[in-house]
Amino acid sequence: MSIEPKEVLGPLHIADARQRIRHVFVRDLVVLAFIGIHDHEKTAPQRVRVNLDLAVREAEGGLEDDLVNVVCYEGLVSGVRNIVDSGHVGLVETMAEEIAGMCLDDNRVRSVRVRVEKLDIFDNAESVGVEIERFNREV
After folding, report:
1. Measuring CA to CA, how many Å separate 35 from each of 114, 115, 120, 131?
2. Per CATH, which fold does 21-135 belong to?
3. Is 118 designated active site?
4. Which of 16, 25, 117, 127 is in Cβ range 3.0-4.6 Å of 21 for a Cys bridge?
């Protein structure tokens, strides 16, 4: 008998035209990270999957097809890679908080949801990890 996995959370509905909110996201970014509290996790990197969902305030003057008027997902991916490459971290919770802080450095970001998953921990589980949501204090 096969059991189909169920999504824990329903789909996110972040974009909101009335509030001028754009949903910027990064899906299933897999990186190699030195992460974990066990000795064997400190000697070799492991696969970690990162998902980001950002609620971004749209520019008042419109896009004008100019990258400076948006939160760039390429910058988000680079930021995640910089955090991962900065050295060993013990907890997925710590990594998620650092990633959320990086996203919220841009004042246009009203909120961010970060999911960090370790992919190769248990043979009978696709992943283990944490999901957090943080809000911009400037909002």
Report:
1. 16, 15, 12, 16
2. GTP Cyclohydrolase I, domain 2 (3.30.1130)
3. yes
4. 16
Helix/strand/coil percentages in the chain, nearest 5: 25, 35, 45
pTM of the full structure: 0.88
For the chain, the structural domain boundaries read 21-135
Find where tokens 């802080």 sit. Answer: 101
d(CA 10, CA 73): 23
Give whole-number Cα distances, 76 to 8, 19, 27, 124, 127, in Å. Answer: 25, 23, 11, 31, 22
pLDDT band at 139 (very low <50, low <70, confident <90, very high): low
Annotated catalytic residue, options 118, 127, 131, 133: 118
| Per-residue model confidence as pLDDT tens digits over 78-117 | 999 999 999 999 999 999 999 999 999 999 999 999 999 9
